[in-house]
Amino acid sequence: MPKRVCRALVAALLLLTSPVRAYEVNDSHFHLTNYIQEGTDIRKFLDIMGNRVGRVALFGIPLQQQWSYRVSGDAAPGYYLESDAELYYYSFTDAFIAMAYKSLPKRQQARFDPMITGFNPTDMYAADHIRRVLQTFPGVFSGIGEFTIHKEFVSSKIAGDTASLNDPALDRILDFAGEVGLVAIMHSDIHMPFAKPEQARTYFDQTKALFARHPRTTIIWAHTGLGRIVQPITGHMALLEEILNDPAFSHVYFDISWTEVAKYVVASPEAVAITAAGIERHPDRFLFGTDEVAPKDQASYLKIYDTYAPLWQALSPKTSRQVRLGNYERLFDQARKNVRAWERANVH
What we know:
Elements: H1 3-17, E1 25-31, H2 42-49, E2 53-59, E3 63-65, H3 69-72, E4 87-89, H4 92-102, H5 106-109, E5 112-116, H6 126-136, E6 143-148, H7 168-180, E7 183-187, H8 202-212, E8 219-221, H9 236-244, E9 252-255, H10 259-265, H11 269-281, E10 286-287, E11 292-293, H12 298-301, H13 303-307, H14 309-314, H15 317-346
Parallel strand pairs: 1-2, 1-11, 2-5, 5-6, 6-7, 7-8, 8-9, 9-10
Antiparallel strand pairs: 3-4
Helix pairs in contact: 6-7
């Protein structure tokens, strides 16, 4: 056998027998585009992920910040906090994400799980939008979200009806997600901003009731319900464990994305210990996510991951790996399998 052929065979054998790349983390919550539908080129984002991030749940933002000249003049807003003008639903985001994903070769596509976000959760036709996206882009999407019900500073700015946890339109969305096998990532504050003690359970109890109505749908509650001013009240982990300890809610998971959430977790050794203990009791129910929006470099993208260093140190190696990697792989691998099966049966 010629030496050149022999060397080629050896190289091919080494590639086949090499271990799978050991990434540090998967990202269950990432926005490729921002509130004015601009973002990071997906190929550049692959470079930003580098050899640290394995897989990413990929979505845009379903809301567009209006540039109202009457409100801000020549100062074009780039974020929802930069204008008093309305936000409105922007359905084209789903086509944009699908085409960005489809522009990649298969081996790079395998690192992404695109999500459908461009629907209005107050619209009874929203489930039909999700169906049409799946039929238009088969083989692409793994879930829906992040979509918003209650969100500080945002909900009151959205044009049209106010989203509600009690809306039949939302039930129709989650029913369809369960039928297809789509993962659903939902942002809804765990309580009202500046809630009085007697108001602390209003949204929480409505959220539990919503989850109970949809036992066939895999739901990830984004940010464990927290935000900028929706801070963890006393017993926050105990509230989460009302869900985690009840077998009726075994389909519900939590992501710990967003730097606003991370700052609460690492605020003190006590906060780290409480969070770590809760996760250790339920290691299969929490997922890491960044909630970064159109990052420019790896340092900004993984700032939250590095911020969580005290939490990773407080968790056992096994639990840390589940939160960083394993739970993502389990949920999204199953979603890919389920959604592709639905598409084979329903897309013609």
